[in-house]
Amino acid sequence: MSPCEKYRARRHFPWKMGVQIFKIIMITTQVVSGVVQRGEYYKPQKTILKDYRGVDEDDYSVAVYTQQGVYDSLFYIFDQYSQLGQLSVGPISYAEDGDEKLLPVTVCKESYKRGSIHPSDEAFDIDAQLEKGDLILLTSITQTLLLFRLIDLKITFQLKGINLQTVRSRELPDCYSFFVTITFDNQCHSGKVKIYLDIDSESSACRDWKISGTVQKNTHYLLIFDGFVILVCITSACLCSRSIVLAVKLLQRFSRYVEDNYNRKVCEDDQSEFLNGWYLLVILSDLLTIIGSILKMEIQAKSLTSYDVCSIFLGTATLLVWVGVIRYLGYFQKYNVLILTMKAAFPKVLRFCCCAGMIYLGYTFCGWIVLGPYHEKFEGLSLVAECLFSLVNGDDMFATFAQLKDKNTLVWLFSRVYLYSFISLFIYMVLSLFIALITDSYETIKKYQKDGFPLTDLQKFLREDKGFIEESIEIDVQHQYSVLCCCKRYLQYF
Amino acid sequence: MSPCEKYRARRHFPWKMGVQIFKIIMITTQVVSGVVQRGEYYKPQKTILKDYRGVDEDDYSVAVYTQQGVYDSLFYIFDQYSQLGQLSVGPISYAEDGDEKLLPVTVCKESYKRGSIHPSDEAFDIDAQLEKGDLILLTSITQTLLLFRLIDLKITFQLKGINLQTVRSRELPDCYSFFVTITFDNQCHSGKVKIYLDIDSESSACRDWKISGTVQKNTHYLLIFDGFVILVCITSACLCSRSIVLAVKLLQRFSRYVEDNYNRKVCEDDQSEFLNGWYLLVILSDLLTIIGSILKMEIQAKSLTSYDVCSIFLGTATLLVWVGVIRYLGYFQKYNVLILTMKAAFPKVLRFCCCAGMIYLGYTFCGWIVLGPYHEKFEGLSLVAECLFSLVNGDDMFATFAQLKDKNTLVWLFSRVYLYSFISLFIYMVLSLFIALITDSYETIKKYQKDGFPLTDLQKFLREDKGFIEESIEIDVQHQYSVLCCCKRYLQYF
Amino acid sequence: MSPCEKYRARRHFPWKMGVQIFKIIMITTQVVSGVVQRGEYYKPQKTILKDYRGVDEDDYSVAVYTQQGVYDSLFYIFDQYSQLGQLSVGPISYAEDGDEKLLPVTVCKESYKRGSIHPSDEAFDIDAQLEKGDLILLTSITQTLLLFRLIDLKITFQLKGINLQTVRSRELPDCYSFFVTITFDNQCHSGKVKIYLDIDSESSACRDWKISGTVQKNTHYLLIFDGFVILVCITSACLCSRSIVLAVKLLQRFSRYVEDNYNRKVCEDDQSEFLNGWYLLVILSDLLTIIGSILKMEIQAKSLTSYDVCSIFLGTATLLVWVGVIRYLGYFQKYNVLILTMKAAFPKVLRFCCCAGMIYLGYTFCGWIVLGPYHEKFEGLSLVAECLFSLVNGDDMFATFAQLKDKNTLVWLFSRVYLYSFISLFIYMVLSLFIALITDSYETIKKYQKDGFPLTDLQKFLREDKGFIEESIEIDVQHQYSVLCCCKRYLQYF
Amino acid sequence: MSPCEKYRARRHFPWKMGVQIFKIIMITTQVVSGVVQRGEYYKPQKTILKDYRGVDEDDYSVAVYTQQGVYDSLFYIFDQYSQLGQLSVGPISYAEDGDEKLLPVTVCKESYKRGSIHPSDEAFDIDAQLEKGDLILLTSITQTLLLFRLIDLKITFQLKGINLQTVRSRELPDCYSFFVTITFDNQCHSGKVKIYLDIDSESSACRDWKISGTVQKNTHYLLIFDGFVILVCITSACLCSRSIVLAVKLLQRFSRYVEDNYNRKVCEDDQSEFLNGWYLLVILSDLLTIIGSILKMEIQAKSLTSYDVCSIFLGTATLLVWVGVIRYLGYFQKYNVLILTMKAAFPKVLRFCCCAGMIYLGYTFCGWIVLGPYHEKFEGLSLVAECLFSLVNGDDMFATFAQLKDKNTLVWLFSRVYLYSFISLFIYMVLSLFIALITDSYETIKKYQKDGFPLTDLQKFLREDKGFIEESIEIDVQHQYSVLCCCKRYLQYF
């Protein structure tokens, strides 16, 4: 019975549905307003050191191939650091320790302790012990850097910044410490030195601040709204928990009855029919919203800075809340077909994914091992998985083929066989079988709708055996509802 | 009965079809000729300031990261502006006010009123009131621009241009005013100053002009053609309106008859059968064409410049007119299957889109909130929707995966779960279900064609009850057609 | 009856099949050897003027935005031309006329005859008559080029080259004349001058040549091979024509018989059953091969240079020959299902393409008109068609969406509605319906294979009526085969 | 009977399955550990000469268009070579011969012996004999290089390097010799000189080495692990071979029995039912693993360097091992449907691929011949095949269309017809037919599962004829199992 019919039949306002719809509106509002007011994140890592030569914006790494290139990069870094004040557009400066003394730049190299190599003679003499040392005098760098012995070189320094952006949205600015590490990586000794830039940031309240000329933003309303959202979610979670608890109790009583009277167990299928998956979904989404909202309030109160965790909680909650709407669409006969089809097809699809997954896993491992050194899309296990997944779903195949063009013949041949077989197998066999599965489920459900669904044991039992009902009535006169009605109502409610 | 059969049966020339076919030819001709003669649009915004350093052609924005970069950009702009005469290839110059005095360049900055920041000490003292002011002496800019206090800086000036291109197609050239705004945006105080270029253009008739050596183009023919198109469309709209009015009248009489004799209402399905959707389509397309043609004539007469609105009207009209052709294809038995299938499947598909839309919406919100700060494809709500839509339909997946690579582990994990689940769900479940829906509809229609379509109430009624017909004849002898024939003919006409 | 069975049954070697298989081998060999020996085409247009600044390799056009840019490009061209001898790597030099005098460089400008413009005053005075003139003194260019009046400027000159590449493959080198035209296009007066480079080449035999130290390549073998291919194709075409002629004769006799005895016409379906489509395919491919081979021989004999036409003929012939192989696969029962399915589905698919094509055409026109000025993929009618076709088949959708991002709101909205509706309609409705059509055809064919194909009139007739056979025997005793056998054999041969 | 049921029924531990699962874990561990410890491959070819101007990182080739460009490239190469010591970051130096003398750089040119060309006069006089010669004095290069006669110029030298990277993973470093060849290719005489860089590397043990300060890595554990993997694989292969041998013996006895008693042969289908494909798969994967592991041990012992071969063996083995897991999934009823469907559909799909392959081949040849000179994706036969394959599976179609835009009209038209027809045919007809095939197979299998599979002759025989069993019992009393049981068990085991 849908909430609508319920209302008509019993003049019983569908509280649960009302709460859910209200919740959707609330959560979406909360989330959208949060995103809109968030503005641009403070991403200093992208901007502070942007002008460092050769540091690519995308992955913060660059490669140099000559000794001169290494030294140039090195001096460029010191140069930029020394003139930070005149350089940067943002409010940033050097970090100081407690006594207002500037913290030093640390240049730390790691190299083989001793060594001489003579490639021409195919001779070398190396002390493989690692020597770590700080380079303090910058002028001595060129002398002390014997590149062939060098393993890596790390430049670390610390910067301080203030996020003035929030002043305008009438929030208190945070102070940031940036721990910058620049690594010259020569571990491979392959003639290429990679330079990485890595910035960790840490925010804290500023020690000494004064803002005038503005009213501190009234965040009360936001807090109240968030609190209200939490309240709604608690209500919703309680209502659903109550339904689940009732269902479990009913199940227990029912199974006791069956055991007493018929001496057999209630089978698992019947048991699971008492547990409504939708309720679990709603409770999960409520929990996520509550945790997310609390985190959000903490962030607004400046006692936490974990934006990501908060947004993951709230984001997932929103996703689940919207998915939950489908349940109410299922009350309409015609929408129900589709939902039932998806429900019926889901285990089959999962099962088939399992089979296909084995082949997929095999291809992933195989591609990683063989093609890894030749193609950047195959360099890591997760990369291979993504690449193959993308290929099946219509990614740029030709580019993948082309990048494997100039390699040696054996690998070329292997890559062709590998790619053709994988793509053909998955696009022509696997995808088609998915369609066959879904089509089959759809037709089954349509036939059921016409001829009636096959009765489960429980339903058969309820239809045939009136004893349970009568007994229920006898036993449960003190209860608000008779078990049977409850049982029936519960089952109808789906 | 198709127009063809009608002609054979009654020697009645199918005027309506003739008009429609004629209309298709006319509108397509009009539209194509319009596009062909339109030539290249006058897009000065792309070209005038093209040489401004750092202003990228695509999105007219660039980012600088150093103080020097900000000043350089600023002076470059003034430099280019001052030598506009020697620089530009096109007919463009400075704007003047009424007294032939050059309009000044305005440099307007907005900054915090007062402030000193000491990031090293985690201390700041800011007056958050905004101070707006025009900078007039260019030389003083470097002194007065304290970048850390700056919020934004706007340079605005005005240019004038003449679109000489139209002289060659023997139309009168328009004069354009360009309102140029260059914004240095430092709202985020994140160490990156974005520079936007924004040009609004306004066209007007030139005040003082003289063209010799050419005959003014004879636009009479074009006007006549446009007028003729309008006439045809009015005729077509009238014919269709008449059919609809007749149908509505018939419906009224029919429902009165049913109410009188059988004491029951005509159900909604039967009512809707009297309303032919194709007629509504034709009328809509006619209205769009008429409005579009009038706008086109106004544009040619230089009294309007809203090219976009005109082309949207005419474009949509063309689309509808061509879609209308399908109706006539439906008269052929074999084509009809396909059209009927699409018609039958349409509500199911819409209904299913509704369900899938909920999940889609959930994913959209979730992706926007969580991945927004990490991936440019997820920065706005409409962008996320487009990105997900593209992913389902076979866009570059790997690139999307790859751009989320270097982020922190939590977000990385979330993005993987998010993308894999979304793509699998939509490509393997949702798309397959679409195919199942369509296949099912197709088979239903094929069975109907073999065994006969199920009769609607109205058809049953018409078949069984002769009373309505006789009564109609008795009552409507003065009418041109008996209601029944009319009714039958009307229904056959579909 | 398949050739294989025929052979077993009658010890009749299947000449036709033998010829066909032999032909496939021959043509593929011919084509592959042709491509392999062709080497790299002589494409001087890509290379001679490659260093011209700003001339992009892809589409030979570049745009400049400043007056200085125009003059620089102009002088750069003259500069490069003057030092061609020291510059070019290839065997190229200036063209001479009959008297060994160098042909001049022509600089031809087209501009408005007279004009003064004052954009600031919104005033202009223009003589729209076009003035064409050659500029001879290069130094005077800057004086005479008033850019705002300029419409276009054409620089034309002629170069000569020798294609020495062929010496190595022991063919005679050709001499080439290159007619170079460089156009400065300012028709739009929009502040952007486009520069196009256009090179026409013409090959001819060199006038005066001497090659020593090598044997002239023995092209006899190639000619013999080509001649042999032609011979095989003629044989094949003759055999097939004979079959068709026999079939037509049989049809005539059969229809005469039916008319005489039963007084009715043979229906069109039955008539078409006498015409074997495969034979037509084979004859068409034979004709193409013959023409292509003759062209190839002419090219080798240096009397023709139309490589493209020749390769289109030979290429299409190869395609058809390979497609013809399917016919022989159809003799195997299990392969036949698939071929029959495709044959049965083909008309349905075509019919449906027709319907979908109407909507497609509507969208194409509409997109061209409305989005043309805003997106380069929508600039031409064929471009729009390709773009939409690509979108349906899984092209980069997001890029298409993204490029329409920064436009005005109305167009933005329209483009979203346009793209979403088009893609959804075609991917979810149209593609699914294709699948439904094919699945349906497949099942029909499978049922036929199990239960027997429905008999055509002709087959029924042959089965029932023995009169035709007897009469045939009586009449045609002098014929080699009785009509009936012939008829039966003919029909079995399919 | 699944291993699980077997265990329950007979308390017979399923050794074979245990071995297989153990093997999967072992091989995956081996492979993953191998990849993880492999680190980055030593790819000096990418890095040594990276700074050579114009040498593109992707395909190691560049083109120059002017004489000056050729000379510049040449001198740049000598320059970089001469200062290799100061340039390179990696441990690399010049090669020496046995007597510690540096090996020389060889510059070898090939050109026409004698020749003068006068393109202006369309005259040339060439001695087509090739002259090869070494250029030793670098200063004389400009004099001796008459570019128009030059065919190619090869610079070859040799470098030595040491792969120090492995010191850190406590393996012994290899010494490498790099044979560098730089080719200036002017074979086409088309005004473009292509420069290729080609590096062959050869690794060998260093002649004279000393490593101190580190313990030689204990590779015993790795060797033991590898050995253990080999052992497991041998066990697995033996178990499977035994099963196959038993099956073959059983088959022989069975066919002898049938021949003796019924005087007929066992048909091939029945024979093939005795051969379990899974066993063959397992044995194949075992063999690959064994070979791969042996190669891996050799590589670790520095006696081999063929990483590629080893990784192809191990990779393919991993793929097969994972695919083998599907067999055990097949023991579950619900998974079995899917596996059986794929098995049933496989021959149909292959057969259909055959048909489609003919058309595909035709299109491939045709595209190669006609579009080869105009589009880089059509330059080679395998490229065309990949391009078409990618297009069908959703590659960037528009880009392919667009690149064929500016060509001559005939080719443009042909390319449109070619691409539209190919894509439509394959995406709409062929892909849909795949889906029809798979859907059909799925439904067949589902019906079989409901109604029982059709019995093969063998099964019918076993069911009906008890004689074989009795006889078997009589004969094979000394055997452990009766043939029948064996036979039955064997067949159940599938």
Automatic annotation (TrEMBL), chains A, B, C, D:
GO molecular function: NAADP-sensitive calcium-release channel activity
Catalytic activity: Ca(2+)(in) = Ca(2+)(out)
Domain Polycystin cation channel PKD1/PKD2: 308-445
Sections of the chain in a coiled coil: none
Main location: membrane
Name of the protein in question: Mucolipin 2
Localisation: Cell membrane; Endosome membrane
Gene3D superfamilies, per the entry: 1.10.287.70
UniProt lineage: Eukaryota, Metazoa, Chordata, Craniata, Vertebrata
UniProt membrane topology term: Multi-pass membrane protein
PANTHER family in the cross-refs: MUCOLIPIN (PTHR12127), MUCOLIPIN-2 (PTHR12127:SF4)
A Gene Ontology term for the protein's cellular component: plasma membrane
Record-annotated membrane-spanning stretches: 221-245, 278-295, 307-329, 349-371, 417-438
Mucolipin extracytosolic domain sequence ranges: 47-207
Alphabetically ordered keywords of this record: Cell membrane, Disulfide bond, Endosome, Ion channel, Ion transport, Membrane, Transmembrane, Transmembrane helix, Transport
Pfam families: MCLN_ECD, PKD_channel
InterPro entries linked: MCLN_ECD (IPR049134), Mucolipin (IPR039031), PKD1_2_channel (IPR013122)
Organism name: Neogobius melanostomus
